[in-house]
Amino acid sequence: MAETAVKQEPTLALEDKIVLLCADNPKGINDDFIQKNEPDIEVQQRVAAINRLLTMGKIELLKSSNGLIYRLKCSSSASQVKGIDNQDRLVYQVIESAGSKGIWIRDIRHKCNLMLTEVNKILKNLEGKKLIKAVQSVAASKRKVYMLYNLEPDRSITGGAWYSGQDFESEFVEVLNQQCFKFLQQKEENAESETTLSPSLRHRSSYASLEEVLQFISDLGISKVKLQPEDIETILNTLIYDGKVEVFLAPSKNGIEKLYRSVRSFVDAADVTRAPCTVCPVFHKCLPGGVISPENCVYMTEWMEY
Asked: Regarding the domain delimited by 168-262, which CATH topology (the fold level of the hierarchy) does it fall under?
């Protein structure tokens, strides 16, 4: 009996994850989507979890142009809610179908074909019963979207790690920007100090993966929220645009991996956009020790004097 319980535990946990994936994707998900989000789950466990959800009536199997998809049964959970009438149940179903991205009151009105006063009354009733909640969207400060009470709002609604309520955390972004660049600089310096390695290996070890940068920032403990890889990638992209970091695509076990490395710039990144270097006909020769160097460039000298 104990052995059977151990085998069923990951299946039950997976069922909850599949339901959440369906809730976040109201149009439906397929097997490839589930496998991508839960790569460590075996095929047999995934099939068993899906079959159990289908039997319980929590999800439904539909045929689309891209094959079979699984979709959350909106009516199943709505029918289990007690203490609400048919109009309330209709509004609840519409909000439920919107998933974690929520739905605007105007769209609720159109889908339910109700007057604004009726919708407001129903929304107030559902909020009072803690069945739904209103979330302020960062994209439109005066717009509220409604979603089920137990759902975590999508990052497109909350703004992710860069927002606190409606306020953009510019200081937090700047701190992350500085710390990511500092880590890559230290990575490069450590690589150059490895005299036992060949030049090619030293150059390779000066690069850092996205996961390494994320781990470094997480270890610092400077973020109150859990940062995701896409958050750090956004910061690294700003460093790339500033000319402080370069990215290199390298083959890996999972396909192509992005590696990042700090760049030593002779001219401040902000000045490059104003300097004539971008249209200079001999820009490719402007190197330390080369035919032309930045300090004796005629174009740069004239520009500086100007």
From this structure: Arc Repressor Mutant, subunit A (1.10.10)
